[in-house]
Every structure is written in C-alpha cells, then in structure tokens.
Design brief:
By secondary structure, the protein is mostly helical. Helix content is 60%, strand content 0%. Helix 1 packs across helix 2 and helix 2 packs antiparallel against helix 3.
C-alpha cells in the first residue's frame, strides 16, 4: 500500500492526477515530487498540500510571537516549501488544461505595480 493510498485502488502513475488522495498521501507526493513541474495534480492533492504549508506557516508565526529568537524558522519553512508549492501549482494548472506559465502572472503584475509606483504614475 502506498502512503495515504487505498489498499484496493491502484495508485496512478506519478505524472497522473490522484483524485481523492488522503492528506498523508498528498503530503507524501508534495515532497516526493519536490521539483516536478510536468504532469498533473488533482484538486485534492493541491489543496491538501496548500493546507499543510499554510497551517505549518501559521503555527511557526505563533511560535515566533511567543519566542522571537526563533524568527528564522518560518523563513526556513517558506524556503523549503517554495519550490514544491510552485511545482504542485503548475501541475494543478496542467490538470485544468492551462499553461504552467500562469504561475508567473501575479509576480509580473507585482513588479509592474512597483515600477509604476516608483515612477510616480
């Protein structure tokens, strides 16, 4: 049996989406496919991974508020999950038949906004 998988259902190939994946299975695939930008990711795989990243980040912020000397923990977590978060996002876009380059749109708009603000327009 695969981590988080169902004993009766066959596990799909790594480049295929895994609909109905459990939380532990999604976390397993999130980290095992660390920098895999090709293939597809199911909705459940994407949202379980995002829930993990969000929950751990918020917990680390809470720890940092109680013990400020541990402020670097959240930064380390964000750096560790940056690439797999982008990878699962790109795979989710592929599953929705969208180009993975759409991940860059918010960043490009942000840089464009900063440039407009800096020029005073």
């Amino acid at each position: 049996m695969t981590p988080g998988g169902d004993a009766m259902a066959p596990r799909p190939a790594d480049n295929r989406p895994y609909p109905g994946i459990s939380f532990s299975g999604a976390v397993w695939r999130f980290f095992s496919k660390y920098a895999t930008f090709c293939g597809r990711a199911s909705r459940s795989e994407f949202w379980w991974a995002m829930l993990l990243a969000f929950a751990v980040s918020n917990a680390l912020v809470g720890v940092t508020l109680m013990m400020p000397m541990l402020f670097a923990l959240n930064g380390v977590w964000l750096l560790v999950t940056l690439i797999p978060s982008l990878a699962v996002y790109v795979r989710r876009l592929h599953d929705a038949d969208k180009p993975g380059a759409l991940v860059a749109v918010p960043y490009v708009l942000g840089v464009f906004g900063i440039a407009l603000f800096a020029t005073g327009l």
